[in-house]
């Protein structure tokens, strides 16, 4: 996908995260509000318990939403879908067909469902089909905002994302074929937004660059899912990220304390751990 234009006006605010600024509620989940060149977009919805209240606190009107994107089908990214669609009737909804698959986390023989809540799937069944877009390839939302589509696995160190399976017996590993990311082409460079980066953070950044003629990565925001990663994978991720040399790194949600510490040591002030209520100006002169 070759683009020759970038937007001059874009900003974002984290609406759901495990951490929060004073006055913002928290939960295990992620949601990011993006305004880009007049387009209003919500990337994930958290579990649904704090999204609306945090949106009001941040001055975000969910009713004005143009596009809703689900990064993948876990409950902590899709649970607020019903509430969002109750407020916004005309938005376009984007997700991979695999987002509605049954999914389980299995640890020490403890089986826990982590799939999209059933009530949310019921809402999807009733949602106008002309507003529902099943994402199975790269998608352009406007002149300089797009979705990666399914992410190719290229790195050798970004393997399993954790003890996730498509069946309760643990015989079918969840490969997260539905995992996708959002990218924004700005005058500073490429901003990449990830939900959990189950396909691997570096795989995701490489794919976003391939779809944008190798444009430099200016910023990456979201969950990096390194919370259960060993030290070797964290170090390899940090080393690879250093080669991209982003100006802004905002680890959220599932990144994990050890990974955040490694990122802060490597990138200093360029790493700003995320929290609900944090806002970002993504265009204009770099600060």
Automatic annotation (TrEMBL):
What protein does this entry describe? MBL fold metallo-hydrolase
Cite the Pfam families for this sequence.
Lactamase_B
**InterPro entries with a match to the protein in the record:** DHPS-like_MBL-fold (IPR041712), Metallo-B-lactamas (IPR001279), Metallo-beta-lactamase_dom (IPR052926), RibonucZ/Hydroxyglut_hydro (IPR036866)
Cross-referenced PANTHER family, in alphabetical order? METALLO-BETA-LACTAMASE SUPERFAMILY PROTEIN, METALLO-BETA-LACTAMASE SUPERFAMILY PROTEIN (AFU_ORTHOLOGUE AFUA_3G07630)
Keyword annotations from UniProtKB, A to Z: Hydrolase
Organism field = Desulfobulbus oligotrophicus
Q: Which domain of life is it from?
A: Bacteria
Annotated GO MF terms: hydrolase activity; transferase activity
- Using the record's annotation, list all stretches that form the Metallo-beta-lactamase domain: 1-253
């Amino acid at each position: 996908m070759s683009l020759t234009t970038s937007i001059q006006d874009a900003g974002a605010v984290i609406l759901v995260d495990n951490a929060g600024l004073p006055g913002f509620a928290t939960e295990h989940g992620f949601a990011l509000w993006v305004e880009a060149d007049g387009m209003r977009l919500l990337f994930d919805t958290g579990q649904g318990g704090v999204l609306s209240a945090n949106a009001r606190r941040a001055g975000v009107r969910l009713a004005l939403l143009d596009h809703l994107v689900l990064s993948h089908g876990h409950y902590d990214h899709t649970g607020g879908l019903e509430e969002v669609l109750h407020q916004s009737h005309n938005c376009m909804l984007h997700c991979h067909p695999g987002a509605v698959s049954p999914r389980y986390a299995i640890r020490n023989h403890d089986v826990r469902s982590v799939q999209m809540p059933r009530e949310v799937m019921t809402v999807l069944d009733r949602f106008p089909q002309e507003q529902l877009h099943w994402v199975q390839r790269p998608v352009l939302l406007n002149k300089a905002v797009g979705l990666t589509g399914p992410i190719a696995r290229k790195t050798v160190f970004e393997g399993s994302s954790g003890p996730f399976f498509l069946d309760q017996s643990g015989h079918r590993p969840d490969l997260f074929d539905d995992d996708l990311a959002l990218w924004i082409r700005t005058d500073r460079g490429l901003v990449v937004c990830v939900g959990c980066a189950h396909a691997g953070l570096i795989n995701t950044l490489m794919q976003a660059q391939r779809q944008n003629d190798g444009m430099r990565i200016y910023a990456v925001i979201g969950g990096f899912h390194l919370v259960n990663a060993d030290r070797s994978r964290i170090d390899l991720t940090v080393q690879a990220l250093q080669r991209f040399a982003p100006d802004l790194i905002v680890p959220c949600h599932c990144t994990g304390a050890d990974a955040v510490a490694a990122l802060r040591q490597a990138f200093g002030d360029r790493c700003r751990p995320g929290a609900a209520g944090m806002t970002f100006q993504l265009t204009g002169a770099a600060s």
